[in-house]
Design brief:
Rossmann fold; ATP hydrolysis activity; single chain; 9 helices; AAA+_ATPase; four-stranded antiparallel sheet; binds adenosine-5'-triphosphate; Metal_Ion_Import_ABC; six-stranded mixed sheet; ABC_transporter-like_ATP-bd
């Protein structure tokens, strides 16, 4: 079997001026060519894990491996050509058009101060089309709804042409039609060989998309395995510390609290 594209080895991380570690000796492997979903209660450390996977922060103990090499051995530009992050939210002080904003995803491929080429523009257009925002390409990013903004962040990540796509709650602002559209878009990327690591608070999205599940709590991995193995009432209930029911209806896996 292929080596994992991403590996966390006993990683501990603490935010400055906080009394406790947000990640507490966390070990995790992300297999290539699959969707891995991280679930867990608020504050479990899911976003922090994604930030370390992108090299935004460094662990205070342990190591992060990307594609068989220590993450610290890559330049920022090299990381940007392999990994793209779709954050939960992002402050945006400039009135870029959507097309200009998505073009920022091409930065890891451009020499310093060089303008994007026509091929970069074509890649940015295709990314906008894939998420269904091409009709808003000239609009200011400051004039978007929450859901449109979320799709824009996905488009910018797609313009990076990553091999590993990190998504932090990517469907939290989307209506049902856009959820379906994004799930189909992510399945398309998977078919192209992109590995996806996402966090989510939406069991129905995870059950439709993920093959692997990571269950987190208090900065640790409680359990990692296939969706089949972990999608059980007792396991999910222990993760969220609330009695949950799991059942199948019409081929769909549903989760609800009692
Ligand atoms: N910039 C920061 N400075 C200090 N502490 C932080 C910072 N960001 C997050 N934390 C803390 O680190 C812990 C993990 O936060 P994180 O955002 O990774 O959790 P999460 O699992 O993604 O939560 P959620 O489901 O609510 O998005 C929490 O206790 C949080 O309060």
């Amino acid at each position: 079997m292929d080596a994992p594209i991403l590996r966390f080895e006993a990683v501990a991380f603490r935010y400055p001026e906080t009394p406790a570690d947000a990640l507490q000796g966390l070990t995790l492997e992300v297999p290539r060519g699959q969707v891995t979903a991280i679930l867990g209660p608020n504050g479990a450390g899911k976003t922090t894990l994604l930030r370390l996977a992108y090299g935004r922060y460094l662990p205070r103990r342990g190591q992060v491996w990307l594609d068989g090499r220590l993450l610290t051995s890559y330049t920022r530009q090299e990381i940007g050509r392999i990994v793209a992050l779709v954050p939960q939210r992002e402050a945006n002080p400039f009135a870029y058009s959507l097309l200009e904003y998505v073009l920022l995803g091409r930065a890891p491929y451009l020499p310093p101060l060089q303008m994007p080429t026509p091929s970069d523009v074509a890649i940015a257009w295709e990314a906008l089309e894939r998420v269904g925002l091409q009709h808003l390409a000239r609009r200011s990013v400051q004039a978007l709804s929450g859901g449109e903004y979320q799709l824009l962040l996905v488009a910018r990540a797609l313009a990076q042409q990553p091999r590993l796509l990190l998504l932090d709650e990517p469907t939290s602002h989307l209506d049902l039609a856009n959820k379906k559209h994004l799930i189909e878009c992510l399945r398309g990327l998977l078919a192209e060989g992109v590995t996806i690591l996402m966090t989510s608070h939406e069991p129905e999205v995870v059950a439709r998309l993920a093959q692997q599940v990571v269950l987190m709590r208090e900065g640790r991995v409680l359990n990692q395995g296939s969706l089949e193995a972990l999608w059980k009432a007792e396991i999910l209930s222990a993760t969220y510390n609330i009695p949950l029911r799991v059942w199948e209806f019409d081929g769909h896996r549903l989760v609800a609290w009692e």
